[in-house]
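Residues and backbone
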Amino acid sequence: MDYEELHSQFHGVNPSARVELVVHRSIQMIVAIKMMEKKHLTLKKLSHPPINRLFEILNGKKFAYLVQEYVQGGTLKEQILKGRLPEEKARTTCGQLVSALKCCDQNIIHRDLKPDNIC
């Protein structure tokens, strides 16, 4: 495999996915690998600046492994828990969110849109 596990760099888990950080050897970049049950996965590659890039999908028997861009800086939820967002940051974040959603066509529904999933 073209990935090197980062020692104890488990990043998170939610009801539908487990995320680990690894080094992608061929591009020399830290990426996030999200492990999801295939039944929860309907995926379309989208290309838009506020949407994390999807590098590849690895298929197992029960799980799909999504190799995605790792975005540093924490989630929107983590930022909110630190205190009120400055108005300019809130405005920028909302604008990026609306722009990303507009990029999706009528057939795509993000069934888990919440501050935990927004960077």
